[in-house]
Amino acid sequence: xxxxxxxxxxxxxxxxxxxxxxxxEGAVEAGELKNGERLPSERELAGRLKLSxxxxxxxxxxxxxxxxxxxxxxRGTFVCARPEPSDAPFAWxxxxxxxxxxxxxxxxxxxxxxxxxxxxxxxxxxSSPSLECxxxxxxxxxxxxxxxxxxxxxxxxxxxxxxxRLRELVAARFKTRAERVLILSGSQQGLDLMARCLLDPxxxxxxxxxxxxxxxxTFRAAGANxxxxxxxxxxxxxxxxxxxxxxxxxxxxxxxxxxxxxRVLPLRERQELLKLAARYRVPIIEDNPWQETYLxxxxxxxxxxxxxxxxxxxxxxFSKIFAPGLRLGWLVASEYIVDQLAxxxxxxxxxxxxxxxxxxxxxxxxxxxxxxxxxLRKEHxxxxxxxxxxxxxxxxxxxxxFNTPRGGLHLWGRLNEGVSARQLLRQTLAKGVAFAPGExxxxxxxxxxxxxLCFTSVAxxxxxxxxxxxxxxxxxxxxxxxxxxxxxxxxx
Length: 492
Ligand code: PMP
Prior knowledge:
By secondary structure, the protein is α/β, with parallel strands linked by helices. The protein has 18 helices and 15 strands. The chain has helices spanning 16-29, 42-49, 53-65, 98-103, 109-113, 136-149, 151-155, 164-174, 187-198, 213-221, 236-246, 267-280, 303-306, 335-348, 354-365, 368-394, 421-430, 460-483, and strands at 69-72, 76-79, 122-123, 181-184, 204-209, 225-230, 250-253, 284-287, 312-317, 329-332, 400-402, 410-415, 433-434, 436-437, 450-454. It has a seven-stranded mixed beta sheet with strand order 4-10-9-8-7-5-6, sandwiched between helices. A hairpin with a 7-residue loop joins strand 11 and strand 12 (410-415). It is globular. The chain starts with 15 loop residues before the first helix and ends in a 9-residue tail after the last helix. Residues 483-492 have low confidence and may be disordered. Bound molecules: 4'-deoxy-4'-aminopyridoxal-5'-phosphate. 4'-deoxy-4'-aminopyridoxal-5'-phosphate (PMP) binds next to helix 9.
């Protein structure tokens, strides 16, 4: 088959991958692609047709699910227009849905959590508050009280919207009504519910660039077209241009100690953002797990509290203030949206875990919560300072520029002199240190030289050792990159 004759229409046409499926299917039917013929590799065809590799991979998977081609790991993809012999190995790869196929092999949340249980690795990758601060005894006592007094509510099924007691306590803390609160099995579930509720394939989403990897993955799986808004510039004129140009179905932002950059959107910009969203009638998802994690001064009010148009859906979690393993989060939104999201949630998990909800309610009510937060902030500020001191001591000058986080759990930085974060990670993993490479936080391939370090997840005594190992490898990588001519060293 002569692949140079293949054509796909870019402007105003149907999705490229659909066009490619149709063309290849036609070629199989017309006999131009013969049974047993090997298709070009995904990379090769993508290069020839100037398409992304994801588009070609999506088309191949679709053809596979239609039984027209068959992929063999390491050998390639072959036309199999005739039925497979019944003893051929079953090809699960071709059976996965289009939304799963869309995710491809990109770096994801799973990569961040991969090493957390490996005692040989100092992981600055996954984000977790200091678990040393978790109030173990108070939690044990609260669990006993709940099992004793409210056994059936704790161990039976809970309402999909959440345990009424927890909804009320979250609402009171948030100065809203319980009907506006939906309890979630982690705020990641909230992102998934909102994607299902608000997005159709092909819709545009304007989101932070760089932005939270879990949001990128979730919106991408929903088939959304992701448009990045530069969070560090935070230029509202630029945002307005994007909104006018792409007519997004929603704006997603993490305005307070943003993941990954740590940036806080100032009050005036918050007000402008809300006005803009109201003018164009675009809902805002305010992902706000960090509001209580400030290290110096409290941040400005949330978008939700400043909103007078009922256009904000506010998302938060106990993961960053208690423990991510509890898998409990919440969202606050209009009652209509809470109702819609609860209808979808029932298909996912029926309800979030009842016992944990009631134990957390007990802790919120008992007044322990604010003391716990104060202790956590102190511990986190100490660890931040330790990490910064270690970076200043060990990292070669000017090779890594980073911010000083004022809240949240991460430090964000940029590797200078052409060093790639992914390449660096490969080396540091071999020496037992993990971090999150910047690429994960970009939906468009940016971030090659950036990286995120979580300063709270590792015990204080291990921070310096982890940074030292990272710095040693960075020093080697720099000279390697220089040797390969990957950056221009000033010669004078
Ligand atoms: N949003 C942001 C911005 C996050 O950083 C995270 C976790 N890292 C989440 C949502 C998800 O948190 P969880 O599901 O643990 O509540």
